[in-house]
Each structure stands twice: as structure tokens, then as C-alpha cells.
Amino acid sequence: MPLKLIESTMINNVISPEYDEDGRVLRRVRSFVRRQGRLTSRQQQALDNMWPKMGLDYQPELSDMEAIFGREAPVVLEIGFGMGASLVTMASQNPEKNFFGIEVHVPGVGACLASAEEENLSNLRVMCHDAIEVLNNMIPNQSLDMVQLFFPDPWHKVRHNKRRIVQPEFAQLIRNKLKTGGAFHMATDWQPYAEHMLEVMSEAKGYSNLSENDDYVPRPDSRPVTKFEMRGQRLGHGVWDLIFERVE
Ligand SMILES: C[S@@+](CC[C@H](N)C(=O)[O-])C[C@H]1O[C@@H](n2cnc3c(N)ncnc32)[C@H](O)[C@@H]1O
């Protein structure tokens, strides 16, 4: 598929139109706002070369993880991977696992594919669509070993808090997709969001907090430190990691 077409398809399709019974367009609260953003030539080239190999188009039907990756292996899903820094590092460090990334920002998808090409990865697949729709319609229940949500948009203003992706319904959506014994790993540098995540997840049915004190865990070595986080560390900002296991 020519690149321009790939790009416009992805931009136009990051959300699917939804209608009420009277055919009126439903406006669901989403965890992102759509940004256009220019593609660098590196991102554009990567979309051209790598989308046919690693990109998956959205379709509202269940997919088969084994068929997508061409092998059976533990699956790690990362939601909102940004430019893909942590996702590509983890995929490169864990060739025995399958990594699946979802991001709505097209330049981020391009950047991720460019890094994946440089690392010569074969265990990564990406989608450019609202992760909520992908989870609801494409990912089979009990199919994921790990779900990662690193530095999700904090939506600082109180009137925007409803846009935060971590909500009770989201916690149950993730739980259904995890295998029993699988884990949901979140990280944020915004303390009020960390507290919100802790409250939502502590009240969510079917999970156990892996923190010794029933709050946060030290950053596991599995989560690479990104440039963004290193800058925060230099400025003295905190980061909170939470890991909850699906127990039932
Ligand atoms: C603050 S950025 C963090 C990016 C990256 N995880 C990092 O640590 O640098 C949050 C990202 O989540 C993406 N995002 C937000 N809601 C999403 C959704 N429902 N589906 C897919 N991506 C989403 C945004 O486009 C954005 O790139």
C-alpha cells in the first residue's frame, strides 16, 4: 500500500464512528485528542518499509495472537507507547516474548517502526487505533501475559480527569484480556494520577497488588528508563510504578 494511503488510513481510522439507536453519532469520552503532527522522513520511510511487516489494521473481529506473530509465545501488550522507546528496548531484550503495541499518534508509530527496523526485531507488531476499541473487539479474553501502561496522559485538570484511561471499567477490560496469573503494570510521574490508579485498582475485583505495602512497587528492571524519565529524575520528579496480578 503506498505510504500516503497508509498514513491517511491510519489517521482516519484511529476511532470508529459509533451511533445511538436513532442513528445519531455518539461522542464517547476518549483518553486522547487527535493530533495530526508531521512525519519526519525517517518515520515516513519506516511506515513505508515496516508497516506491511509489523503493522496491523483495525478490524472489529477477534484476532489470533499465534497467527499474528507466527509463533506461540507469551504476549506483552503496551498501550500508548509514544515513540516506542520502552517497547523497542523490551522487545529487543526479550526475543522469547511477543510484543504488541497500540498507539494513536501516527508519528509515534513511525518512530517506533524506525527503531524496530534498526534493531532488526521480528517479535513486535503495532496498531494505530484507540486501544479501548482494540481491546474490546480484537483481543481475545485470557490471551495476554502482561499489559503495560507507561506514563499515560495525566489529564491534570479536574474537569478532564474523566479522560484518564485508568477507570473501573478499564480495569475489568484489562483483567478479562489477561491470563490468570498475568500482570498489569502501570507507571506515572504525576502523583495525583498514581493515587487515582491505586484507588481504582485496589477496588477492582479479581486483582492482587504485588506491592509489599499495598501501594507502589520499586521500578522493576523490566521497565527501561526513558530519556523523558531521566530528565524528570534530574529535576527531582517522582515516578510511581504499580503492578497488579490477575488472580481470578
Ligand atoms: C504521555 S504519552 C506517553 C508515551 C510513552 N508511553 C512514554 O512513556 O513516553 C501517552 C500516549 O498514549 C497515547 N494514547 C492515549 N490514549 C490512547 C488510546 N486510547 N489508545 C492508544 N494510544 C493512546 C497518546 O497518543 C500518547 O502518545
TrEMBL record:
Q: What is the E.C. number?
A: 2.1.1.33
Stretches for region Interaction with RNA: 159-164
Which pathway features in its UniProt record? tRNA modification; N(7)-methylguanine-tRNA biosynthesis
Write out the GO cellular component annotations: tRNA methyltransferase complex
Q: So which domain of life are we looking at?
A: Bacteria
**UniProt KW keywords:** Methyltransferase, S-adenosyl-L-methionine, Transferase, tRNA processing
Name the InterPro entries on file.
SAM-dependent_MTases_sf, tRNA_(Gua-N-7)_MeTrfase_Trmb, tRNA_methyltr_TrmB_bact
- Binding residue positions for substrate: 157, 189, 226-229
Top class in the EC scheme: transferase
Binding positions for S-adenosyl-L-methionine per the UniProt entry: 78, 103, 130, 153
Catalysed reactions, semicolon-separated: guanosine(46) in tRNA + S-adenosyl-L-methionine = N(7)-methylguanosine(46) in tRNA + S-adenosyl-L-homocysteine
GO molecular function terms noted in the UniProt entry: tRNA (guanine(46)-N7)-methyltransferase activity
What the entry lists under Gene3D superfamilies is as follows:
Vaccinia Virus protein VP39
Q: Which family does it belong to?
A: Belongs to the class I-like SAM-binding methyltransferase superfamily. TrmB family.
Role description: Catalyzes the formation of N(7)-methylguanine at position 46 (m7G46) in tRNA.
Q: How does it assemble?
A: Monomer.
Q: What is this protein called?
A: tRNA (guanine-N(7)-)-methyltransferase
Species source reads Xenorhabdus koppenhoeferi
